[in-house]
Amino acid sequence: MALFLPSVLVTALWAHAEREAPRECVGALGGHPAGGEAAEAVALYPLANLSPDPERTYLADPGHLLRALRAMEAGGLTLVGLYHSHPRGPAWPSPTDARLAAYPVPYVIADLRTRMLRAYRLPEGTPVPLRLEGPHA
Ligand SMILES: [Zn+2]
């Protein structure tokens, strides 16, 4: 299982994370399955963070997420990942992240403190590290 993130999306993701800091940012990644369990992201959709405690957790605006999913569908894309930032680190899912992960897709975490980008699957609350491929790797 691997997720390929091209440099244009990596740049957009970090820009979104920096714009929202010290709040966590959240967004969706649309793309294509790339054979086996791999996927390639080709589009990034920033979403509003509606969490009441946005410096520690995220809650994607469900209306924004629905619009992003519809835009993907219209463009022939599927949801290949969700991302959010940890303004103070670490590049590891928090217990809340693991507990609330609802989609069977890679979760990308941008750690602004160390500038690390990491991806995980969160099946049943247990983080499984994924290979993240691209210019940041
Ligand atoms: Zn988190």
Topology order in helix (H) and strand (E) letters? EHEEHEHEEE
Helical content (DSSP H or I, runs of 4+): 10-25%
Total individual domains: 1
Roughly what fraction of the amino acids lie in strands?
25-35%
List keywords for this structure.
137 residues, Cytidine Deaminase, domain 2, seven-stranded mixed barrel, 3 helices, 34% strand
Describe the structure.
The protein has 137 residues and is α/β, with parallel strands linked by helices. It has one domain (2-133): Cytidine Deaminase, domain 2. It contains 3 helices and 7 strands. The chain has a 7-stranded mixed β-barrel. A hairpin with a 5-residue loop joins strand 2 and strand 3 (39-47). The mean pLDDT is 94. The structure holds zinc ion. Residues 84, 86, 93-94, 97 line the site of zinc ion (ZN). Keywords: Hydrolase, Metal-binding, Metalloprotease, Protease, Zinc. This is TtuB-protein conjugate cleaving protease. Residues 2-136 form the MPN domain. InterPro entries: JAB_dom_prok, JAMM/MPN+_dom, MPN, VirAsm_ModProt. GO terms for molecular function: peptidase activity.
List strands and helices in order, with pairings.
Layout lengths: L1 E3 L2 H14 L5 E8 L5 E9 L14 H13 L3 E9 L8 H6 L6 E5 L4 E6 L6 E6 L4
Parallel strand pairs: 1-3, 1-7, 4-5
Antiparallel strand pairs: 2-3, 2-4, 5-6, 6-7
The protein binds zinc ion (ZN).
